[in-house]
Amino acid sequence: MKFLCSHCGHLDQPGRFSADGEELTLTCLRCGKPTFHSPAPLEQQRSQRTPLPQNARVTLVSSEMASNVVSIADLSVRAVASAKASIPTAFEVPEGHCPKCLQTISASPICGRCGATRDRVDMEALAPPQWLAKSWRDLLQEWGDGAAHKRILSSAGSEGALASLGRLYRLRLLHCPEDPWAQRAIGEIIDTASMSALRETASVPPTSFGWIKGAVALFTLGVCAIAIFYMLRFLRAQ
Question: How far is residue 99's CA from residue 120's CA, in Å, rounded to a whole number?
Fold first, then answer.
């Protein structure tokens, strides 16, 4: 994804971005200044949009006869519209994806990544908690509200449901791969989970490690004693 910096005119991928409601802030890699994008109403964008030549293709990869400049406003509008349209089927896995790990699968009934058999996956076990399911439907209705995403991330963190929330955001990306809110939320979930793991490791009392070392030492001494006993017994038999 590329954007045109409003300050220096540099066309490149953003150095970083953040979302506040339906407004995206992108930072230029060259000059470091922010560019703000607020989506106009969908009908207004359609009326102002310049049509591409009939033989042009919109893509994120540079190629002959292709346009690789993506409108951030269009991405925002499409993401919000897709989220609202998905409310009736918010927890269904699209065809062609493993119902357990959500990876793309072939015609084989067994997922090559997680080994799950497509028809034997317990979908009830993968379903989010009731409170999260309700909160997720509410979030889909107000998908362009950055504060709503922060609230559900905070609730999932306090309730220990980050894994379930991450799965829901991954489902969103299956329907709308360029959704900026889902991409950012997944990054925040990964960061939060990593920090939690580091804090838990750091909070293990030193005495626990001492006990483990002591047990290993005793086991090693026992093995050595048994080995010496049988060695002496063998030598006496000679």
Answer: 10
At residue 46, does pLDDT exceed 70?
no
Sequence-distant (≥ 6) Cβ neighbours of residue 45 within 8 angstroms: 39, 73, 74, 77
Query: Which pLDDT belongs to residue 114?
Result: 87
The torsion angle over the Cα atoms of residues 34, 35, 36 and 42, rounded to 10 degrees, is -150
DSSP 3-state assignment of 84? helix
- Rounded Cα distance, 213 and 197, in Å: 22
In whole angstroms, give the CA distance from residue 184 to residue 192.
Answer: 12
Q: Give 108: exposed, middle or buried? Use CB within 10 Å, 0-12, 13-18, 19+.
A: exposed
pLDDT computed for residue 55 by the predictor: 46
CB 83 within 8 A of CB 31: no
pLDDT (tens digit per residue) in 57-83: 444 444 444 445 555 556 788 899 999
Tracing tokens 């519209």 back to the chain, one arrives at: 81
